[in-house]
Amino acid sequence: MAEVRPERASRVLEDTGADVLMEALGALGCECRIEPQRRARSLRWSGVRHDPCSVAPEVWSTEEQELLLLLLLEPEEFLQGTAQLTQTEGPPCPVPWISPESPAHPHLAVIGLDAHLWSCQPSAQGMQQLQNSEVVQAKEAVSWPDVEEALVLLQLRADLDVLLVASWQELTQHVCAYTKALTQLPSKQCWDSQAFSFCTAGRWAAGQQVARDGSGLRGVWWRQIRQFNRVSPAVADAIVTAFPSPRLLQQALMACSTEQERLGLLADLPVEASKGRQSRRVGPDLSRRICLFLTTTSPDLLLDLGS
Asked: Which residues contact 186 (CB under 8 A, 6 or more apart)?
């Protein structure tokens, strides 16, 4: 069975909110490892195909398959790459932050971008005093429309998703959701690949077939009557014997002159009684239900008043 292990680079732990992520992953029962990564701030999920109880830890690295790579970017780093992507002059800029050697399809996460952009908006007085400042020009270089344009370009050029979160708590929720989904993926794939034998074998699974010459229609009609509540096989036999198809019964109902006659058409049909029991009839209740079933045009009509 596959095992999913989130692995964190050591620089991630230097953030003040990283302890929230650590506690949440520990509560999930995940095995986490802190080790150097190609990207200093990254989370990597790897799957182990063997049972860790029977495989020595020193051979885990040779049995792992990298499943997901999440790169954590500072707002300033993301905005610098955004400015490169949205430049209008020169050839198109390659996607920053992404290494071509990465075996996994990467995803990006930026914490606090919205708050950072708001903090970078100087007041009117500050704008007038620092109009020629390079700092102000750098802060004004990227705006929310530029960020939205960059998100579209990343999706189109590199099929790259960017997760914008406000805090470490929100990032932790997404990381835990990723981890749970990857952990359940092998079992879901196994279930999806297995056929359900009870859907492919047995006469009842295939249903009653009706041929072009009409053979089999009586059996289908009998089964349909049996689907009504409180209908025994003997009652269904009585109705099917009198009206071998639903079309014949419908024609008989339409030929009735009054509504009362139509509702009670089947009421007096005799039902064959078993040995030692008195003979009986279909009865007015079932006659009314079948009549309404074949004649009503209201989809909300309640057929069985006793249900």
From this structure: 1, 2, 47
What DSSP character marks residue 16? Answer: T
Q: pTM higher than 0.70 for the full model? A: no
For the stretch 81-91, pLDDT in tens is: 888 887 766 67
Q: What total of structural domains would you count in the chain?
A: 2
Q: Does residue 273 share a domain with residue 182?
A: no
- Copy the structure tokens of residue 230: 């409180």
More confidently predicted of 125 and 256 = 256
Q: CA distances (Å), 112 to each of 45, 73, 90, 146, in order?
A: 23, 10, 31, 17
pLDDT at 67 over 80: no
Both 168 and 273 in one domain: the answer is no
pLDDT(249) > 80: yes
* Residue type present at position 28: L
Whether 6 is covered by a domain: the verdict is no
d(CA 252, CA 243): 9
Average pLDDT for 184-192: 72
CATH of the domain at 284: 1.10.150.670
Assess whether pLDDT exceeds 80 at residue 181: yes
Same domain, 148 and 236: no
| Whole-number percent of the chain with pLDDT over 70 | 69
How many whole angstroms separate alpha carbon 90 and alpha carbon 84? 11
Residue from 7, 72, 65 nearest 36 by CA: 7
Query: Coil, strand or helix: which one is 162?
Result: strand
